Amino acid sequence: MTTVARTRKDVAVVAHLLRRAGFGATRDQIDQYVAKGYEETVEELLNPRVGQPEDQDLMDRYFIASVEARSPGHADPQWSWRLATSEKPLEEKIALFWHGLLAVGGVKLDHGLEMLTEIDLFRRVGLGSFRNILFEISRNPGMMYWLDNQNSHKGAPNENYGRELLELFSMGIDDLGGGAYTEDDVKAAARAFTGWASKPTPPPFFLGPFPMEFRFDASDHDNDEKSFLGETGNFNGEDIIDIIVKKRASAHFIAMRLYLFFVSDEPDEGEIERLTDLFQETDGDIRSMLRYIFNSDHFKSADVRFRKVKSPAELVFGTARLTDRFDIPDMDSSMLANQSLFMGQHLLNPPGVEGWHEGEEWVDSGSLIERVNFAASELGRRDSHGVRRMLDRVGSAGDDLEPEEFVEACLDALGSIELSPGSKTVLVEHAAQYRSAVSGTVDGTDRAVEMFQLIVSTPDYQYC
Amino acid sequence: MANNKNGHREKNLVVIQLSGGNDYLNTMVPYQDGLYYDFRPSMGLKGDDLIPLDDRMAFNSNMGPFKGLFDQGKMAVLMGIGYPEPNRSHFRSMDIWHTAEPFTSSAEGWLGKANSLIDPEGKNPITTVNFGRGLPRALASQGVSVASVGALESYGLYTGLAGAQNRDAMLDTISRIYQPMAEGGFPSRRILETGRGALDGADILREAPSKYTSDVEYPEDNPIAQSLKGIAQVMSADLGTRVYYAAHGSFDTHTNELVNHALLWNQLSKAVECFWDDVVAQGKANETVIWMFSEFGRRIADNGAGTDHGSGGVAFVIGDSVKGGLYGEYPKLAVSDQLDGDVRFNTDFRRVYATLLEDVLGVESEPVLKQKFSTLDLITV
Fold this sequence. Notes:
By secondary structure, chain A is mainly alpha-helical. Chain A has 24 helices and four strands. Chain A is globular and about 80 Å long. Chain B has one domain (12-151, 218-369): Alkaline Phosphatase, subunit A (3-Layer(aba) Sandwich), CATH 3.40.720. Chain B has helices at 34-39, 64-71, 90-99, 110-118, 167-177, 189-211, 223-236, 257-281, 349-360, 366-369, and strands at 12-19, 28-29, 50-52, 58-60, 75-82, 128-131, 147-149, 243-249, 288-294, 313-318, 325-328, 347-348.
């Protein structure tokens, strides 16, 4: 392989990594990551710097209404800003993953402050052990309220949390509704979680929410013996989690969800089995599983590249990041959350405990029009830092490019995007309509912007 | 209009959502009940602020045009509407009205499901048209295409796009890319077909205003009037649309209620008056039914400047085929009759949905509502 060919392949694979482990990267960022090396980039993504984010104070000053946010609508400017600007992209991506899997929504919680607390929880522990993630979410006041655990009492357990913990958060069920657990296991789990609740319980306060905290009420906890998944003892909620995470069904469930979110909409059973083994070998260490995924030949292969339909958040923030236009937290950045809502993903307000239906279901005729119009209008921001740099790149590719070379230059400038032969042929024909002026002239700029807009309008761009 | 399986003419449904929780008691005022004035020292309506309907109830005076429809017997007022175990969160309560599922969280809307019964093969991408950005969950259902329109004239791809000097050529190119091809290819057939449907639906809808003529002048500075004008335009083009959806608000009048609630009803009254005149002029008054609802009513007692979230509310059904009048119980305000400070609901909104599904849209209600609700005798079929 020639050096040029090797470099092109490196660029394509790093661009793919950043689309999946984050929200894409500009062409310049891709060059920086390529220079650093693929595996080094994976490690940097997997080990984001810890500590208080330096932009919290900035956000609190600009988004005054989102300090102690009342509703999801008050809270989402904060997450929008992070999704659009964070330099720790996997931290935000893993938060989005858990937000969809361990879904808690404003539809019932209606407590913006607590919703942001959850997202922070996922940033903090989302790459660690699954046991710890389940433990933390089980002590999360928003989750306890969302699944009615405040109504679960000694002698009168509410089964909601016990059931969803098994069905939706860990062991899962098959297409026929069967699971590797029984109704008796659900009841035992519910009894073990009695006394786990939040303080205060949140009604929708008119003047704003109060901070909530976890509260264990020992006097309301069922201390009798329980049988759960074949073990017997005086189990508390923590014991239930310990038992759950040892089961292969849980390992397989998380392996499947990670695969569908990070690799492809089409499951590959062989890869998922290997991930399941890895879960069991590492006590469910999410970081180890992602390291395996990102470094695998399967992940880097053309078979899975552009085989995942972008969620609205991926489309919105991935496109907005290309323009690199957010210098301070303002209305522009907070409007991005609205765009995602228009396309069917209301961040901080998933439609139910199952999170969102992902994959092709994201795209309906109304949302597709929103997706295309949003992406095209972002690329029309020719004064933004990002679009200016893209125009420079296309300009520096040469003054008299053949139509195909021009389309290639535009695809590369957009962060190494690839198109199907059918879509590309039509765009090359479009470019052939204006063969001349590609460089620094006004016309050349118009044409490059127009080609960017067409590229992000394609069905291909709906995939990442 | 086709006849449905019972031989009745099918009708079209226009939904107007009053977002934010419309205050039942200052919409329909129990003006002879001293308790109303006791509980509402700061915002009890009286005298010129009222339009009496009978010796107990009066419309808010900002509802003047509705009085005409009511007197002609074309407006049904459903007093004390709600659902069991009411929830006072906007999000959750609106969700319950959208999905008709008070006890579980669902991603499927009642009208989305109705759409898939009306058009099972998804042949018409504009069976349902929503005016507004983003899809209300009421219209969401797996595999159902719904056109969501901001403004008709600018609906479609690349409208108002900065930098698109060459819009026609761009549209032409995109249209050539979204051509369905064989199953199993990339991009998937499903996404290409969705794009095709979106482009076709947009073309059809954008044409509607050019074919529309009307003597009715809708007020420009009134958003719900502009949405209803758009609905009238689509309606006049006879495109097979069966469900129209628009929202008005915000009715979340915790403060300054007297001013804001009056303004909202003033806008809505004028908008519906214009729309109904238009519908009559189009000769569609008998096949059009308007349904207006809100996610909850508000507290019986005021808070000094407004009212807080409550439960039992009021909803309206309007049309030539509607049997007008007052339905449900007159509001009982005595403390012993209240539900935690609210009007107790007496009519489950799902009975109205069953009625609208069966007697307006001409589809079975049980698959949508997951159980059989007795219908109300509201519609002349």
